[in-house]
């Protein structure tokens, strides 16, 4: 959005002179970009991070992990690597590549995972996702066909709310109009731009739409607010692309576009203060059951009614989270095999994992938003969870079933952890879930369970979801009341057993370079 500063301009000149003297191959090995302002004046650049951002796009994949470990050894920290990777991803894909935006959404969770690992293991989740990031950029040749470029802000009408303007712009399916509108909004406070973006996010029910928005916001903590426009505009382009697909395939927009404003008006939610009414366990369980078993319109209405009655938004969000968790526990597993997702598996883009990640994103957006979007996010989140229920084949009772629970007789925590790990390695979802259910029922310390499951969230691909779902469960466990929180870890144990056996590309090489025995 702004021209290069004099310092950046001189840095670009110096970088170009150095590349000319050492050659482009060595420049990449040194982490110096071969693209600079003199070559491509329309390129979106990132100041001091630019050499690293470009290196993450351009370093040959067979040299990437060596380069990254060298960076770590010379003092570059993991936060800087993750921030540069996020910018490389955004510039390359702009929220419009399936594996690309999945990888972006895994970056912040991977960094969060490092905080739970011993010092020598901390780089592993980050190196794993950075490898995936560069691999997809180069597989699609996106380093030479970048999506994001500088954009000029439009002049917006005076005294007009930004959210509805952006919503209309994305609905127009016009990239230039939507991008220019958001660029204008992004000139103001970052939190206001994020709130205005939510009008477009709430227009359709898509896990990637809402999680990308949340993960872009979460990335600001790592990359800094100065990159807010770059990171958040991915969601604008995602929404426009979605609108174009509706037109292309002659699909009707989601009914949420009429349901949400109707409920806001019906319950006069915007004229009331947010409630602080505390909810008993039975109330949360009842609302969760209603959301799980209702059609989408009924689920949205139940959430709106609860908010109108003055219940704390956290309690409503907790019920949505429990309903989405139930989708993992009731899932019968895939009835058709896909690459990396065999028959009976529940990892990757399964209904429960998708619903849980979506609910987590809706809840987090509700926490950081203004009153209007706190309310709207929870209503749309309830609707979204119920959509998953109606589109899936689910078991009447949650797993693990009673006979599966009866097969677990151990009570010692160490023995139970050993049995859980054996079940994971045997890809026995129901045994793994039953063992962790028993562990939780006995009220053992949860940290060793997280440590066990974190190990596999780090090593396994999880069909692009291992990091995100681990992060979702960790957050939801912490935010869920004791009566229900162990359901989250039971679900994670099941998903971990499902995804075991497919290590993430680049993981073994990272272990070798770090001299880690796995």
Automatic annotation (TrEMBL):
It comes from the Bacteria. This is Uncharacterized protein.
């Amino acid at each position: 959005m702004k021209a290069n500063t004099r310092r950046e301009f001189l840095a670009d000149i110096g970088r170009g002179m150095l590349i000319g003297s050492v050659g482009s191959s060595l420049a990449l090995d040194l982490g110096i970009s071969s693209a600079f302002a003199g070559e491509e004046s329309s390129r979106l650049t990132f100041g001091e991070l630019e050499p690293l951002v470009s290196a993450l796009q351009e370093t040959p994949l067979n040299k990437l992990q060596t380069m990254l470990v060298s960076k770590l050894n010379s003092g570059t920290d993991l936060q800087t690597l993750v921030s540069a990777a996020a910018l490389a991803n955004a510039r390359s894909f702009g929220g419009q590549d399936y594996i690309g935006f999945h990888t972006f959404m895994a970056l912040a969770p991977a960094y969060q995972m490092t905080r739970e690992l011993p010092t020598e293991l901390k780089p592993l989740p980050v190196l794993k996702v950075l490898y995936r990031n560069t691999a997809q950029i180069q597989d699609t040749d996106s380093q030479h066909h970048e999506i994001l470029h500088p954009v000029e802000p439009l002049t917006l009408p005076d005294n007009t709310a930004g959210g509805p303007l952006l919503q209309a712009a994305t609905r127009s399916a016009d990239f230039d109009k939507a991008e220019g509108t958001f660029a204008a909004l992004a000139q103001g406070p970052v939190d206001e731009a994020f709130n205005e973006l939510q009008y477009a996010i709430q227009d359709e029910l898509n896990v990637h739409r809402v999680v990308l928005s949340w993960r872009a916001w979460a990335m600001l903590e790592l990359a800094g607010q100065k990159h807010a426009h770059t990171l958040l505009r991915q969601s604008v382009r995602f929404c426009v692309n979605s609108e174009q697909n509706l037109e292309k395939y002659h699909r009707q927009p989601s009914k949420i576009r009429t349901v949400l404003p109707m409920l806001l008006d019906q319950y006069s939610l915007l004229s009331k203060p947010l409630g602080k009414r505390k909810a008993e366990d039975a109330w949360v369980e009842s609302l969760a059951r209603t959301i799980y078993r209702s059609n989408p319109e009924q689920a949205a209405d139940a959430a709106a009614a609860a908010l109108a009655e003055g219940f704390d938004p956290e309690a409503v969000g907790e019920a949505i989270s429990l309903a989405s968790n139930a989708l993992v526990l009731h899932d019968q597993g895939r009835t058709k095999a896909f690459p990396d997702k065999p028959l009976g598996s529940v990892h990757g883009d399964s209904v429960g994992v998708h619903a849980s990640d979506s609910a987590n994103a809706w809840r987090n957006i509700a926490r950081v938003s203004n009153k209007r979007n706190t309310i709207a996010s929870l209503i749309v989140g309830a609707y979204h969870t119920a959509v998953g229920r109606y589109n899936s084949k689910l078991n009447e009772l949650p797993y693990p079933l009673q006979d599966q629970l009866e097969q677990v007789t151990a009570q010692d925590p160490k023995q139970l952890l050993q049995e859980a790990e054996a079940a994971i390695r045997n890809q026995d979802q129901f045994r793994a879930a039953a063992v962790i259910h028993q562990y939780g029922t006995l009220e053992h310390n949860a940290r060793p369970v997280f440590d066990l499951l974190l190990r596999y969230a780090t090593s396994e691909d999880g069909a692009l979801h291992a990091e995100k779902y681990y992060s979702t469960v960790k957050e939801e466990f912490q935010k869920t009341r004791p009566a229900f929180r162990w359901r989250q870890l039971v679900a994670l144990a099941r998903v971990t057993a499902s995804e075991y056996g497919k290590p993430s590309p680049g993981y073994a090489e990272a272990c070798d370079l770090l001299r880690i025995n796995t």
